[in-house]
Amino acid sequence: MNTKEFIKEVCQEIDYKPIRNSIAEEIDSHIQELQEENIKKGLSKEESERIALEQMGEAKSIGKALNKIHRPKLDWKLVLLVFFIFSFGILITICKQTTKNTGITEIIVNILFGILIGFGIYFFDYRKIRKYSNLVYLVALLALLLPAFDILTNTIGGIKHISIMGINFKPTVISVPLFIIAFVGFLIDYNTNNKLKISLNITNSEHNISLTKDLLKIIVLSLFSIIMIAETPSLTNAVILSIIYIVLATIYIVNANEKWKTNILKFYGIIGAVLICFMLLIGERGILYFINRFDVSINPEKDPNGMGYIGMLEKEIIDNANFIGEANTEIMDKEVIHTESAFSFVYLIGKLGIIAGVTLIISILLMFYKLIFNVKLIKDVYGKFIIIGLSSFFIIQASANILMNLNLGIKVDVLIPFINFSGLYFIMNCICLALILSVYRRKDIIMNS
């Protein structure tokens, strides 16, 4: 038996075919190392190969052992954490149902459809998405353009929603996660060799700026996506998308290991310049508006009948909350806190008590930890960055919402993932989670470039 036959016999015992190539390469490398050691001892090439294979052991036994290790696995810990968080959403829905018709049938349909489509995404090979990054970006852009041209559009509360077969949803619900996925594809496929020179005439002297076509593409498409999100209008989602782009780019630069400190300084220098331009663009009044909005979000008593109105309601609920059971206040089922999904967390505290709120926070923090921990387990770089991007999306949304509900952060239009079941939001959460689980399922596979 030669090396090729040995590896083939090992791989035949491995049920999960996508992992076979990686295992074959690893075994072949190990056999070659053993051969080189035997050759150094004075053995012939043929003899050293025979002894190396004997040192490896019985092929079928090795294959069966590897099959147990590399079997596709579901990340049960993450699934159980998400299901536990999801159960709080069910409790909130039940509480609201006792006082108001919240469309329980529609919610059940959304949950079932979200789980069903998520199940399909889980078995889908996420690696196939990479070559369609441009198409993913175009779909995200199309979702933003439909309301802009009043195509399939329905205006709700003064905001344009996409309306398909009676289902209304904000375009950002689709666009933000798709832009993240597209950006990861652009980043991983970044080519440092396709140089592009731009000439600038400064004080009668010519200066050349050298950059790559791929880098120019990433910069232009990223900025355009942020501008388009902000124009929907959704400044909050534009900020969230910007933060995720920065996180992904920072990790990519650091992992490049080639002058990464210098490149980081350049990168954040550019970001600083963009922020300065933005502040100059919005002017002093715009900056003061954001400062005042943040101040009132933290201290709602400064404008109790204006921007601080909702904050005062949250404050009353928290001040009167019990450790277990409903808060000693009459506003629970009469105000915006009851009707708006963005305030589900403080509603939970008001209805079920402080312990329920603390338990939900702990569950969300554990989910954060599990998402971050999973990044270390993924061998494929593309899959690793998919998890970083989508996990950042979950983490930022949940953190911003909880801080807002506790009057510790600015009031923004974001929800806690897996707590709200209406519209397309829950379905997109399921798709993003399923994509993360799909990556984890193939965590031992290294994708060939």
Topology of this protein?
Blueprint: H1 3-12, H2 20-40, H3 45-56, H4 59-69, H5 76-97, H6 104-123, H7 133-148, E1 153-156, E2 159-164, E3 167-169, H8 171-188, E4 195-202, E5 205-212, H9 213-230, H10 235-256, H11 260-298, H12 309-319, H13 336-339, H14 344-352, H15 354-377, H16 381-405, H17 425-441
Antiparallel strand pairs: 1-2, 2-3, 4-5
Q: Can you walk me through this structure?
A:
By secondary structure, this protein is mainly α. It contains 17 helices and five strands. A hairpin with a 2-residue loop joins strand 1 and strand 2 (159-164).
Spans with pLDDT under 50 lasting ≥5 residues?
none
If strands are numbered along the chain, what order do they take across the biggest sheet?
Answer: 1-2-3
Distance between the termini: 32 Å
Number of strands: 5
* Oligomeric state of the chains present here: single chain
What would you report as the Rg, rounded to the nearest angstrom? 27 Å
Mean pLDDT over the residues? 85
Shape: globular
Percent of residues in beta strands: 5-15%
What composes the largest sheet?
A: 3 strands, antiparallel
The number of helices is 17
Helix content: 55-70%
SSE sequence, one letter per element:
HHHHHHHEEEHEEHHHHHHHHH
